[in-house]
Amino acid sequence: MPSPSIDIAQQIKSQARSLGFDACGFAEATPVDAEAVARYDRWIELGHNGCMQWAANHRDLRRDPSKLLEGAQTVISLALNYYPARFQPHDALQIAYYAYGRDYHEVLREKLTELAHFIEQITHCTTRPCVDSAPIRERYWAQRAGIGFIGQNNCLIIPGKGSYFFLGEIVTTAQLPADAPCDMTCGSCGKCIKACPTGALNGNGAADASRCLSCLLIENHDEELPDWVPEVVGDRIVGCDECQRCCPHNAHATATAIEDFSPTETVMNLTRDRIQGMTAGEFKRTFAHSAISRLRYKTLLRNANLHEKCK
Ligand code: SF4
Ligand code: SF4
């Protein structure tokens, strides 16, 4: 007979699979280790969080999951595949795959909430689902929970599956058996460092967000971007997938089964004229349930105009 906690752990993992999650692992909810804390603090000190000022906030919460949920015993890390089944045509303005379909915050939150309810029912413990917005070190916990490792491209790489995954966590007071941390590394590959069009990757598994197109095109809402951006932006308008596309771990990525992540017709046919002719109201309606709504109307327009500068 398996012990109750192992049986419960298996039930949780099985329920996660049936909800569509591609990976699920458990880590003991102890504070983040000193080396990882120092790495994060250094990243902030160097200003490599760029315009993401929020990343410098709530550092005490990021260091200790028990500050997110009193009595926390376990961090459950979960991954959801978003690799698209079909792609934008080459002549469309390019959107990062993660933003092709419905806003992942909505999709992930629904699934995490359902799983959290299930956990509460079978363990009689409390849970806190975390979707991006909570100050928790997502990739760190995914690595500790054995799901994958943090690549030189700063993404969580799941061995055999790649990096096109959304991550979510459930912090819980349930004591669950911890999985062995993933100890894989990139070795001497370095392909993403060479492929990055802006030199944002430093080879230490961290990205300088002040140079990263993903950050600049999505999080930065300044009227003007640095002068060098039009030179390197190419046909990208929302985010950048370059350091994932070139990664050998993504060579055999399989398409997501989640229909919500399929590209909308707007995404499939996005042209500069279409964006420049869009009103603020139309932007709001068109992207209401898309991750693109995070950009705001003026930022999308600014990005579309960048392509005129680089002609
Ligand atoms: S997303 Fe693009 S700009 Fe940012 S690190 Fe990756 S390749 Fe470089
Ligand atoms: S491209 Fe190579 S170095 Fe970069 S994340 Fe993938 S395996 Fe690691």
Annotate the secondary structure layout:
Blueprint: H1 4-18, E1 23-28, H2 34-45, H3 59-63, E2 74-81, E3 94-95, H4 104-123, E4 127-130, H5 138-144, E5 149-150, E6 156-157, E7 165-172, H6 191-195, H7 213-218, H8 229-232, E8 236-238, H9 242-245, H10 265-268, H11 272-276, H12 280-286, H13 297-309
Parallel strand pairs: 3-8
Antiparallel strand pairs: 1-2, 2-7, 4-7, 5-6
Helix pairs in contact: 1-4
The structure holds iron/sulfur cluster (SF4) (2 copies).
Description:
The chain is of the alpha+beta class and 311 residues long. The chain has two domains: 4-84 and 100-172, NADH Oxidase, CATH 3.40.109; 191-309, no CATH class. It has 13 helices and eight strands. It has helices at residues 4-18, 34-45, 59-63, 104-123, 138-144, 191-195, 213-218, 229-232, 242-245, 265-268, 272-276, 280-286, 297-309, and strands at residues 23-28, 74-81, 94-95, 127-130, 149-150, 156-157, 165-172, 236-238. The protein has a four-stranded antiparallel sheet with strand order 1-2-7-4, with helices on both faces. It is globular and about 60 Å long. It starts with a helix and ends with a helix. The mean pLDDT is 94. One iron/sulfur cluster binds at residues 151-153, 186, 189-192, 246-249.
